[in-house]
Amino acid sequence: MDDAFAPLLAKVAAQDRAAFRELYKTASSKLFGVLMRMLGNRTECEDALQEVFTRIWLRAERYDPSKGSAIGWMIAITRNHAIDRLRARPVESADEDAVLMMADQKPGAEAGLMAKGEAQRIVDCMSQLEGDKARAVQGAYLNGLSYQQLADRFSVPLNTMRTWLRRSLLALRECMEK
Amino acid sequence: MSGTGAEMDDDHILAGEYVLGVLDLSERLSVQGRIKGDQAFARLVEIWEIHFAGLNGAYVEVKAPNLLPKIEARLFPQERKSRRWFGWMAGGLVAAGLLGAVLLTLPSPQPATPVATLAAEAQALQFAAAYDGQNLTLTRTAGEAPAAGQDYELWLIVGSDAPVSLGLASAVETTRALPGLPAGAVLAVSLEPTGGSTTGAPTGPVLVTGAVSL
């Protein structure tokens, strides 16, 4: 699904506004889905989506197809912005049932994670982590949970959660680079 | 990147933590500064983004409202203005020439001189402050506008006095009337909710500071 976006992004980098409109038409629902999952609040997601597409327009020339898919690059921009918003929230509110729901699921259990090809590698590597650790990594990546929220969710001290994730990152790096 | 294996591991982990999103705001701002200045580290972040992109399939599409008009208004606001400018130019070239001659003879105010650079280590954001004896002009020279829902706010700190707000500084350029500016005073920009601090003191993180030298 990403191949269609790369030529569009190249045109956007050349200031092609028609291509930008086409990109919005075809990519906005995926990026809005990312925001809805991470931020939850629809009004905030609409603000965030405007910022995301503003950044896509301004940064499109920096996209390098040799370094991954165009949709992956756009989702990275989207996640980054969502996480900046989450971390700037004054107090991490307890009202996060929506974003916490997924943490109960096994890695790979989500439909979209029945991935294929290149995407399968991270799923395979995650499956080699202990269940809770894989779920913590997934909760951080997909839902934008902070160390503190993860520690609360898994009922472990904050420092334990830091150790979990850091060790998981080292294990994942080793596995991914095999 | 130089350093021991352990330091390289630390960088890999920090880049991974950044991509996962678990760092707090100040750590994130510091990592974002490092990404701008350290290519090897920026590459580590990219590698993690590509590694984890395999999880992106779990994000379910949600139909987005059509926000294109708003986005385009934000990205291309100069169009209407420049057309008006063009029309005026076409219609009034002679008048413009006359006006230019008049402007040249008007007394100019004291020129604004640079008085401070507001920056912080590992912070992408940077401002330049200039003062002309009456007005302080703050220009964002690096970094991005605040995210929606947030504003930058400018503060003046003289000696050990409490910070005094000089208003919002979210625009690329902000000018404030300021009757005096003592050398050694400190200018600071904090991150605040939209509209700025309501307490009279900075409530969010102080992002950058700079001392005034006249």
TrEMBL record, chain A:
RNA polymerase sigma-70 region domain mapped to chain residues: 23-89
- Can you tell which superkingdom this protein's organism belongs to? Bacteria
Q: Which GO terms describe its molecular function?
A: DNA binding; sigma factor activity
- Which processes are annotated in GO (biological process)? DNA-templated transcription initiation
Q: Matching Pfam families, A to Z?
A: Sigma70_r2 (PF04542), Sigma70_r4_2 (PF08281)
Q: Which residues form the signal peptide?
A: none
**Keywords of this protein's UniProt record, alphabetized?**
Sigma factor, Transcription, Transcription regulation
Spell out the NCBIfam families in the cross-references: sigma70-ECF (TIGR02937)
Q: What is this protein called?
A: RNA polymerase sigma factor
Lineage, opening ranks: Bacteria, Pseudomonadati, Pseudomonadota, Alphaproteobacteria, Rhodobacterales
TrEMBL record, chain B:
- Domain (Anti-sigma K factor RskA C-terminal): give its ranges: 94-206
Q: Which GO terms describe its cellular component?
A: plasma membrane
Query: For this chain's UniProt record, which GO biological process terms are given?
Result: regulation of translation
**Keyword line:** Membrane, Transmembrane, Transmembrane helix
Q: Name one GO molecular function term.
A: sigma factor antagonist activity
Q: Where are the transmembrane segments?
A: 85-106
Query: Any keyword Repressor?
Result: no
Its name, as the record gives it, is Anti-sigma K factor RskA
Q: Which organism is it from?
A: Neogemmobacter tilapiae
